[in-house]
Write a structure and sequence with these properties.
single chain; 6-stranded mixed sheet; Rossmann fold; alpha/beta; 3-stranded mixed sheet; binds magnesium ion; GMP Synthetase, Chain A, domain 3; globular; binds guanosine-5'-triphosphate; 33% helix; 9 strands
Length: 325
């Protein structure tokens, strides 16, 4: 269990609390929004669609109450087994929450005859059958002029009785505080659901694997990101407590030794990931290590191996082994 999880659940009377899901097409900025809301890197992000593969919880607690946000994989037309799993994760989360945040992009529907795309129409149908209070979150408003939002709001308002419409920029953290307050105002009155200082339920080693996958997504093109999974094989904390008398360096103390496998599906992909003279893997390793050090607050020794596991994304037992079950 991560160290930030404690057991006491203090609460004052008349607080509000609830679960809220972030749901939407791939790449609209759901994970960026989760990180903006919590102020931490709880979900990896990238310019490539289908970055998120599992749900990620981010708990935000303020004096007025607590919202547990669930980030989900982007809903898309899934063909392979992994993709079907991802879409199931997103749609199931919708059934478990008090309120839904439907995230769309401000740049959508800017054509001559604006219309809601097929993917978003599918999500709207699911929102209708879920019957939860739903907010329309229009993200990436930094990319459009103000007047351009009105036709989009109009378009969506005709499709669904949204409780509120919130234009935001998750990247620039514009409108994010107001979004939190609005979500909270739609949550039922009640005790806090989680300890006040709890941030997530994700284990450190899960976040570590995700941070490595994030660097693969950021450094590699084409099919590599979609064929990659990361598994932490060793998480050795025996030197995590700094030895008495040792001074912190670079603001870090103690050492965690981590060995992780990066799985790909073909030999050719392995060669790309390793790169000429091992350069690509080295870059991925260095960037991942820096982020993991920030997460753990310790020095990190990171040993990355690339392994070929043919068609892992199509085989149920391999999917389970990679954490997709
Ligand atoms: N300009 C702009 N870009 C944004 C904003 N929010 C997110 N992005 C960018 O959009 C891309 C996708 O962001 P993610 O947060 O990974 O999107 P997602 O919805 O979680 O995507 P999936 O996990 O694939 O479903 C990244 O390059 C982000 O930096 C925003 O408010 N403005
Ligand atoms: Mg995401």
């Amino acid at each position: 269990m991560p160290p930030w999880i404690t057991s006491a659940v203090p609460s004052s009377p008349r607080t509000r609390s609830g679960f809220a899901v972030l749901i939407g097409r791939p790449n609209v900025g759901k994970s960026t929004l989760l990180n903006a809301l919590t102020g931490e890197r709880l979900a990896i992000t990238s310019p490539k669609p289908q970055t998120t593969r599992n749900r990620a919880l981010g708990v935000v607690t303020r004096p007025a109450g607590q919202v547990a946000f669930i980030d989900t994989p982007g809903v898309h037309q899934a063909r392979g087994q992994l993709n079907k799993y991802m879409v199931d994760v997103a749609l199931q989360a919708l059934d478990e929450v008090d309120i839904a945040l439907f995230v769309v992009e401000a740049t959508e529907g800017q054509g001559l005859t604006p219309q809601v795309g097929e993917g978003n129409r599918f999500i709207l149908e699911r929102l209708k059958s879920a019957g939860k209070p739903t907010l329309l979150v229009i993200n990436k408003v930094d990319e459009v002029k103000k007047g351009q939002l009105l036709p989009l709001i109009d378009l969506y308002a005709k499709q669904f009785p949204f409780a509120e419409v919130l234009p935001i920029s998750a990247l620039k953290k514009d409108g994010v505080d107001l979004l939190f307050e609005t979500v909270l105002s739609h949550c039922p009155e009640g005790e806090l659901l989680f300890p006040e200082d709890m941030l997530t339920d994700q284990a450190e080693r899960v976040l570590v694997a995700e941070y490595v996958r994030e660097q693969v997504l950021r450094h590699c093109r084409q099919e590599i990101p979609y064929s990659t999974a990361v598994r932490v094989d060793v998480f050795d904390e025996s030197e995590r407590e700094p030895r008495p008398g040792t001074k912190p360096s670079r603001g870090l103390a103690g050492l965690v030794r981590i060995a992780a496998s990066i799985f790909v599906e073909r030999d050719s992909q392995k060669a790309i990931l390793i790169g000429k003279g091992g350069q690509m893997l080295k870059r991925i390793g260095t960037e991942s290590r820096k982020r993991i050090e920030r997460l753990l607050g310790t020095h990190v020794f990171l040993d990355l191996r690339v392994r070929v596991e043919e068609r892992w994304s199509e085989r149920p037992e391999a999917l389970r082994e990679m954490g997709y079950e």
